[in-house]
Design a protein that fits this description.
The structure holds two protein chains of two kinds. Chain A is α/β, with parallel strands linked by helices. Chain A has two domains: 83 residues, no CATH class; 283 residues, Aldolase class I (TIM Barrel). Chain A has 14 helices and eight strands. In chain A, strands 7-6-5-4-3-2-1-8 form an eight-stranded parallel sheet. In chain A, strand 6, helix 12 and strand 7 form a beta-alpha-beta unit. In chain A, helix 4 crosses helix 12 and helix 10 crosses helix 11. Chain A starts with 12 loop residues before the first helix and ends in a 12-residue tail after the last helix. Chain B is α/β, with parallel strands linked by helices. The longest helix of chain B is centred in the middle third of the chain and has 21 residues. Classes of the chains: A alpha/beta, B alpha/beta. The interface between A and B is small, with 9 and 11 residues.
Chain lengths: 380, 309
């Protein structure tokens, strides 16, 4: 066969292969469980207008199905599945994301959006220069974002490095604000697996409610999908507490380093299959962070994942979201792509620090009719 | 072979706002017509169309305040000497466009070309005069205070920050000389300004933006918005990120209580306020300005310092 493994999925190659190279598709009995067939069929119908793809394999009868884990049974099967996902229509995606950013949100809708956005913030400090005092101050701000207005909602979580978890936990006692901790050698993720697991277990033991792990981008980009998969599974295991409960696991893709939209779609499915509770765009430490198209792509992935499996996964864009206008655009995107089910802090978060100040200034403007200024919010 | 002659079509100028060192149109996309001012003698003639200028909105004013705030740190941080050099440069650029300004002043105020040229010259001279003050103002506004102990006590003037200016709308020479007389003293001491240009005579103001952009004045130090004063001035007065307010042009056109209402709005955020003249229409901007405006937008910082042994 002249093509790579991609062709064996039976999904992509027909569209791209010149007629003279076409070879008959043989149904892949052992590696295409019914679930995957159903999914491929679903995608085929969904994107029929956008991509030309074969539905022959998807309709192939008599596939012995098993569970979800079969996809990750081997490197080959996982790759076959991920590369069988339909390609992303870049122009369409970017146009859609841009179109959703043009909505005009004013007055009461804006007030509601601002309060919702504040309640969805993972207020973040991830600096080498973080001190106990700074983390405490940030927690105080998370509890009472605007001391002059007690109706201001609280943020969803405080996001810190593992060694600051205990401090944050202590400062947030008596509230329902979660403590999120980055882990697994954040932000690069370049450490041995035992180190990453110890990092995670340490944060969980210190009381972290949520763990933000980074994937091994090097492994993903060099095609070792199963390594990435297994690492997420292992970290998920390390999130378990002695009492049987488990810290929420957010998986950071660092989409700015993944090169293509296709990769973002693949890694989204990879992480969701591995058991991520949340998928998160970026660390905030590289040049390109959360962008509307990438976030839209991930929103579509969680929508399709729920349609296919019934499992709901949250989304967290992080980095580069600084203004109220940006935040409202993201909320519009969530509403239009996923609907009300995801419009709660439980399923959608903003990873941000300076965004909160802008939201507070806009909130003050709506309340008083006067434009506010940086003198009226805290300096972080 | 034909003796048909074609009249050349004029290239009309698109006047634009000057915000953050750039020339945006109004956020609203709207414009309004500016017509020729007529002298008392020629008042019988119909008002002649001059140009469409942007109808600035509250949001434009808000954007301008953001730009001005961003520029404060850099502009206030330059040395007084450097600020003076930059302002001299502005005067040089003004000199080079003398004819253009004279024409705009003449149609804006309804005066003859000779008077207009004299007003432009006066405006250039005034700009130079304020440029000279940059490194001297500390000597009249600050100094070493007498103390009864072995230490120094020094007061130094510092810029207030972002100053909202309602540009003069009346008085002889208001369109350029008056404008220069309110902008130059505020920026000479290190403030940044947002100017609501005279609604009926915005052409010299918008052209001044072009002069500032080609001088070495950093973007955002001066921001000029044309439009209805009744829209822009209250936004500046109530904006919590504006530190001082110059109400020189807040006159009867916006109702007799315009200045008082703006002053009340400014009081909410403890802004420094410069009040308009009692009779702005009688004001002659060619009169020597004095140092009042220079000293209006300053904060005094006093430090105690050990004398050493």
């Amino acid at each position: 066969m002249p093509l790579t493994g991609r062709s064996r999925s039976g999904i992509e190659w027909r569209a791209r292969t010149p007629r003279s190279y076409r070879v008959p598709v043989r149904p892949q009995v052992s590696v295409r469980p019914r679930w995957v067939v159903a999914l491929a069929d679903y995608y085929a119908r969904r994107y029929a207008a956008l991509v030309t793809m074969s539905t022959v394999a998807a309709n192939a009868p008599g596939v012995a199905g098993s569970g979800l884990a079969d996809v990750a049974a081997s490197e080959a099967s996982l790759r076959r599945f991920l590369h069988g996902l339909p390609g992303v229509d870049q122009v369409g995606l970017e146009a859609r994301a841009a179109a959703l950013g043009t909505r005009s949100i004013k007055t009461t809708a804006k007030a509601y959006g601002i309060d919702l956005a504040i309640s969805m913030i993972d207020l973040t400090t991830l600096e080498g220069a973080d001190t106990v005092g700074k983390v405490r101050a940030l927690c105080a701000k998370g509890r009472t974002p605007d001391p002059t207005d007690p109706t201001t909602p609280r943020v969803a979580a405080i996001c810190v490095y593992p060694d600051m978890v205990a401090t944050a936990k202590d400062a947030l006692r008596g509230t329902d604000i979660q403590v999120a901790s980055v882990a697994t050698a954040f932000p690069a993720g370049r450490a041995a697996l035992p180190v990453k697991l110890a990092d995670t277990a340490d944060a969980v033991a210190a009381g972290a409610d949520e763990i933000d792990m980074v994937i091994d981008r090097g492994a993903f980009l060099s095609g070792r999908h199963l390594d990435v998969f297994n690492e997420i599974v292992a970290v998920k295991e390390a999130c378990k507490r002695p009492d049987g409960s488990s810290a929420h696991l957010k998986v950071i893709f660092e989409t700015g380093e993944l090169q293509t939209y296709d990769n973002v779609r693949r890694v989204s499915w990879l992480a969701m299959l591995a058991g991520a509770d949340f998928i998160k765009t970026s660390t905030g430490k590289v040049a390109v962070n959360a962008t509307p198209p990438v976030t839209l792509l991930m929103l579509e992935a969680v929508r399709d994942f729920r349609a296919a499996t019934g499992v709901q996964v949250g989304v967290k864009p992080a980095g580069g979201i600084r203004t109220t206008k940006d935040a409202l655009k993201y909320l519009v995107m969530v509403n239009e792509t996923l609907g009300d089910d995801w419009l709660t802090p439980h399923w959608f978060r903003f990873g941000a620090s300076s965004l909160l100040n802008d939201l507070l200034m806009q909130r003050q403007k709506l309340a008083t009719g006067r434009y506010s200024g940086p003198d009226y919010v805290t300096v972080d | 072979m034909s003796d048909t002659t074609f009249a050349r079509l004029d290239v009309l100028k698109t006047y634009k706002l000057y915000v953050g060192g750039k020339f945006p149109r109004s956020e609203s996309g709207r414009v309004y017509e500016v017509t020729k001012a007529t002298s008392a003698a020629g008042a019988a003639g119909k008002r002649e169309w001059l140009a469409n200028v942007p109808l600035g909105t509250r949001k434009d004013a808000r954007d301008a305040v953001l730009a001005a705030r961003k520029a404060v740190k850099g502009w206030a941080g330059t040395t007084a000497y450097n600020r003076g050099q930059v302002l001299y440069r502005v005067a040089e650029m003004l000199q080079g466009r003398r004819e253009q300004f004279a024409a705009e002043v003449a149609v804006s105020e309804g005066i003859g070309p000779k008077k207009a040229a004299a007003l432009v010259d006066a405006a250039i001279d005034r700009w130079v005069w304020y440029a000279g003050w940059t490194d001297k103002v500390a000597q009249i506004a600050g100094g070493a205070n007498p103390v009864a102990g072995p230490y120094f006590n020094l007061s130094t003037p510092e810029p207030t920050g972002v100053v909202g200016i309602v540009a003069p709308q009346a008085g002889y020479g208001h369109s350029l000389l008056g404008l220069v007389s309110v902008i130059a003293p505020a920026i000479a001491t290190g403030n940044t300004v947002v100017v609501a240009a005279a609604a009926a005579a915005p052409l010299p103001a918008l052209s001044l933006g072009e002069v500032l952009a080609t001088s070495d004045v950093p973007g955002g130090v001066v921001n000029i918005i044309s439009g209805r004063t009744a829209d822009i001035a209250p936004t500046l007065a109530s904006h919590q990120d504006v530190n001082a307010l110059d109400l020189t042009g807040a006159i009867a056109a916006d109702g007799p209580g315009a200045a008082a209402a703006l002053e009340a709005a400014a009081a909410d955020t403890l802004k420094r306020v410069v009040r308009p003249e009692l009779d702005p229409f009688a004001q002659d901007w060619t009169n020597a300005p004095g140092t009042d405006r220079l000293l209006s937008f300053l904060e005094t910082k006093t430090v105690w310092h050990p004398m050493g042994i």
